[in-house]
Write a structure and sequence with these properties.
The protein has one domain. About 10% of the residues lie in helices and about 30% in strands. A hairpin with a 2-residue loop joins strand 1 and strand 2. The N and C termini lie far apart (about 90 Å).
Length: about 260
């Protein structure tokens, strides 16, 4: 009898558990994060240039640009393009660089070709060159006689009192303390094998996104240079490199 009652109670308890289980409500919540995305950043260098030759705007030969607004460089953009250089000539370019992400800067000058080309009679006399006019002339003398200076061209406003008065890109080297417009290279010829200038060492440690960095480059052929440069030509490339600064605080260009 007791056993039958116990079994009946168990069956009732099981049925009650099923009924309760079918109607019970638990606390709940749902949180969903949608559209999780990774998008790579960019690093794009834009360059503009203002060119002066003997104190006047540089000539613009057909299909050549010597002064231009901020852009990516193409074959038409030439910082220097002069076809009738003489002793006493000089010029200046102010080059400004902008990037869309924090970056380190580097300028590589290379691909130099210093040709003697044809040899005029006055040039042969000046060089005491017995090969003059034979077509077997040695390298030219223009590379060693074009003298360059480069500086950080931050500009200085009239009534300069301190860093708060700094402007930018004024096409002139302001000979104030080196803190403001340091000379990157002092006057001299470009090495025959080319040169590499780490521009990030000057001004800020690196170039901030959307900030403009201006660099002045002046050149001159001394008036003391004579007939030895007649008909000579000097051709070279100017390559601006940028590399990301984030995770590259030492501005290493070696991968």
């Amino acid at each position: 009898m007791n056993k039958k009652i116990l079994i009946s109670l168990c069956v009732i308890g099981a049925v009650a558990a099923i009924v309760v289980g079918g109607t019970i409500a638990y606390f709940s919540d749902t949180e969903t994060s949608t559209g999780n995305t990774f998008t790579a950043g960019s690093l794009d260098l834009l360059v503009d240039n203002t060119c002066y030759y003997n104190g006047a705007p540089c000539p613009e030969p057909t299909d050549i640009e010597t002064t231009w607004e901020s852009t990516n460089l193409g074959v038409a953009h030439k910082f220097f393009y002069f076809t009738d250089v003489k002793p006493g000539d000089s010029g200046e370019d102010t080059i400004s660089l902008t990037v869309d992400n924090d970056a380190c800067l580097q300028l590589v000058i290379g691909g130099l070709v210093d040709n003697d080309n044809t040899c005029t009679e006055p040039e042969g006399v000046a060089e005491n060159d017995v090969t003059c006019g034979t077509g077997s002339e040695p390298a030219g003398e223009l590379q060693q006689n074009v003298l360059f200076t480069m500086w950080l061209d931050q500009g200085v406003t009239p009534g300069f009192q301190g860093p708060q008065d700094l402007g930018e890109c004024d096409n002139d080297w302001n000979n104030f303390p080196e803190l403001f417009e340091p000379v990157i290279i002092s006057e001299g010829p470009i090495d025959e094998g080319g040169e590499t200038w780490d521009l990030y060492q000057y001004g800020n440690a690196y170039l901030f996104a959307d900030q403009k960095a201006c660099f002045g480059v002046s050149w001159r052929v001394p008036s003391t240079v004579g007939n030895e440069i007649q008909s000579d030509s000097l051709v070279g490339n100017m390559t601006f490199n940028v590399i990301q600064h984030r995770h590259n605080e030492t501005c290493s260009f070696t991968q």
